[in-house]
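Dear colleagues,

As part of the handover before I leave the project, I'm documenting each prediction I ran so the next person doesn't have to rerun anything. This entry is a single chain, and its sequence is reproduced below.
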Amino acid sequence: MKLKGKVWKFGDHVNTDLIIPARYINSSDPAFLAVHCMEDADPDFIKKMCPGDIVVAGENFGCGSSREHAPIALKAAGVACVIARGFARIFYRSSFNMGLPIFESKTLCDLVQEGDEIEVDGDAGVITISGKEAGPIKIEPIPPFMQELVAAGGIMPYLVKKRSRG
């Protein structure tokens, strides 16, 4: 899996209410959630970002309520992946269940600025920053089973596909 996009940078402890405010979770429509993605963290996020862009954050991304709406909103908004120093455990699992690739990097957040372009090679486990002399940044590749979930679009499409194969 290779991804390339512009960085949108956030800090530590970005909770699920910042990713998708609770006032919108009465809907599970991905298109509706996408319109409101990150609006309490950056009201202009959706207007500024483009499909394929990448969210980079600090520690404990996705903390707070254990709602699947948060990774759905990010994915539906067109976020290619999220790279953070660390993730809340429930958000980590929900992201893969919804087909949103996420990666941990202890150093990337300190090396990039908002607007930088990065390339993520999820298979090789490296990130490169365009136009900077920083060498490739090592990340843990996504385990094969979780790669299958992402490729299928999440756990439900994965199970439907697996069932149809017999």
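Strands lie at 2-9, 54-57, 81-84, 102-104, 117-121, 126-129, 137-138. The CA atoms of residues 158 and 164 lie 10 Å apart.

All the best with the project,
I.
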